[in-house]
Specification:
Number of domains: 2
CATH superfamily of the largest domain: Nonribosomal peptide synthetase, condensation domain
Number of strands: 15
Distance between the termini: 61 Å
Strand content: 15-25%
Order of helices and strands: EHEHEEHEHEEHHHEHHEEHHEEEEEHH
Shape: globular
Radius of gyration: 22 Å
Strand order of the largest sheet: 5-6-7-2-13-12
CATH architecture of the largest domain: 2-Layer Sandwich
Largest sheet: 6 strands, mixed
Helix content: 25-40%
């Protein structure tokens, strides 16, 4: 039995029927050319036969005196966690996305380990899909990406069959417990040691908020149609965009790929809000999760935050990108001289009012940011599930009261795969954002040669 860490407890306490707190992923695969008719059925059976469930997938929640703990599930039901679905013919992508939207809007059962996997056959062009959902208290987006990477291989091999819930076991229960205890003690010491530097950083941020035009913080977000109460229904839209096109623009403007991604999002949101006659005069503010995981980290939550000025009030696309870049560069400079523990402490301090507002709903009209935009590094090589080639992977995330849209993306091969998760009732025609993202990239392309001269 292990106590749930404080950050993960926040995700548990935030969860309500209208705001499930799980992250997800949709992977699209091509069936092998010589696959039998019951190929996906056999795949499901093989997955269900992998019963050696490893932490954290083998644990469910148990409460003692109101405090949540992780305990081992001794009545594990693999058929419940691994489910087999099929699309009706002709199995269009729009039907797949509609199904995933419905699945993503349902809560995970807290009496069971907080994860589910759906293997979905009948997708057009002889494809099938895998949709996964993990509760945010178990892991953040980067952790989920690492877990999903474990069941994929770089070669097509029907015998190399792996599943994400079979992580390498610990050397022994005792050594694992000792390592966990030592990690907790060391982390507590580092967090205490970070407090003086965090205090200085808070003073610096307060000063910069008044004097540095590139400072963007959690008090500048305008009211917008993105920041309204949400229902429990979800709408998921997904599409990939050429990484080489994005890199061309980034090189021309001396920007990063992430800067260009933010400019694409800014252009798309500006156009979407103009469509609905709802563009605020002040620029939208994006909250950008930043992974603080090192190579040895496994699952769990370990993130920092940046705030970015999306410059949606600026009409010129080049000027908009320049403003975004300066805004992000401010936080990069600020964080460069801080340790991960100092960053997390600073983020906790800056985000405390927003967190309290999300938990209590005391000030529903006040938002610390307008939209979350999360960019998760992914694999560059072609990956396979057994002998089935993965042709696309798209992230799904959380929307909450006051945050009706979440934009997540992951890189795969020469593509950035965008996943837009939105409240179906609050934001109409959210699929239009997919075209507007491409338009936002395209409008920067003519300016790229001029900028590079």
């Amino acid at each position: 039995m292990a106590i749930v860490d404080p950050l993960s407890q926040i995700f548990l306490r935030l969860e309500r029927r209208n705001q499930p707190m799980h992250v997800g992923g949709l992977q699209l695969f091509e069936r092998p050319a010589d696959a039998p008719a019951d190929y996906v059925h056999r795949l499901v059976e093989r997955a269900r036969d992998q019963c050696g469930v490893q932490p954290p997938f083998d644990k469910h929640l148990k409460y003692h005196f109101g405090q949540p703990f992780w305990v081992v599930d001794h009545d594990f039901d693999m058929a419940y966690h691994v489910r087999h679905l099929a699309l009706p013919k002709p199995g269009r992508i729009r039907d797949l996305l509609a199904l995933v939207s419905m699945l993503h809007g349902t809560l995970l059962d807290r009496a069971r380990p907080l994860w589910e996997v759906y293997i979905i056959e009948g997708v057009s062009e002889d494809r099938f899909a895998v949709y996964t959902k993990f509760h945010h208290s178990m892991m953040d987006g980067v952790s989920a990406m690492r877990v999903m990477r474990r069941f994929l291989s770089i070669e097509a091999n029907a015998e190399s069959f792996r599943v994400p819930w079979q992580l390498p076991p610990a050397r022994s229960a005792r050594s694992s417990q000792l390592a966990s205890t030592w990690h907790t003690v060391r982390a507590s010491y580092r967090q205490l040691a970070a407090l003086p530097a965090t205090a200085r950083s808070l003073v610096d941020a307060w000063h910069d908020a008044r004097h540095d035009p590139d400072f963007t913080g959690p008090t500048q977000a305008p009211a917008s149609m993105l920041n309204v109460p949400v229902s429990g229904s979800r709408r998921f839209a997904a599409q990939g965009y050429s990484k080489s096109r994005i890199h061309t623009v980034a090189s021309a403007f001396d920007a990063t790929i992430n800067d260009v991604v933010l400019a694409m999002c800014s252009a798309a949101l500006r156009r979407y809000l103009l469509d609905h006659d709802a563009l605020p005069q002040a620029p939208l503010i994006a909250m950008l999760p930043v992974s603080l995981h090192d190579e040895d980290d496994g699952t769990g939550n370990k993130v920092g935050l940046m705030y970015a000025n999306l410059a949606t009030d600026v009409a010129d696309p080049g000027d908009r990108l320049a403003t975004i870049k300066r805004s992000v560069d401010y936080w990069k400079r600020h964080y460069k001289r801080m340790t991960p523990e100092q960053i997390m402490a600073l983020v906790a301090s800056l985000s405390a009012p927003a967190g309290l507002n999300l938990l209590t709903g005391l000030a529903p009209r006040h938002q610390s940011f307008n939209v979350i935009i999360s960019n998760i590094p992914g694999p560059e090589d072609t990956l396979y599930f057994g002998d089935a080639e993965m042709v696309g992977m798209y992230p799904l995330s959380v929307v909450m009261d006051g945050q009706a849209l979440n934009i997540s993306l992951v890189s795969y091969r020469d593509s950035l795969e965008f996943g837009l998760t939105a409240c179906r009732r609050s934001l109409p025609s959210v699929q239009n954002l997919l075209k507007y993202l491409d338009d936002g990239l395209e409008e920067l392309m003519p300016a790229a040669p001029a900028a590079s001269q």
